[in-house]
Amino acid sequence: MALVVWRTGAWRLRIVKRSGAAGFEVLPKRWLVERTFAWISRNRRLARDFERYATTVVAFVRLAMIRIMLRRLAANTSS
Q: pTM for this one?
């Protein structure tokens, strides 16, 4: 993953390590990723690993994010 991020040059990869503390602790930026994965997994084709090729998964993730953005834009224009 670090190599892919380095090749694009547009992303910054920051690995958040878990602490050894017991109990719940909010980790920086981790919830953003987990929330986005939850939104993406609401789509039926992305809820499980059905696809054979990674390019197909990338296309469906892109479509899922476009769908989320269009819903937000439509909600902002109607209010």
A: 0.54
DSSP state of 29: T
Q: In angstroms, what CA-CA distances link 15 with 12, 23, 33, 58, 73?
A: 10, 20, 12, 22, 31
And the tokens for 49? Answer: 């690993």
Over the chain (79 residues), the average pLDDT of each successive run of 10 is: 74 70 70 81 78 85 89 81
Give CA angle at 66 (61, 72), nearest 5°. 130
Contact 63, 46 (CB under 8 A): no
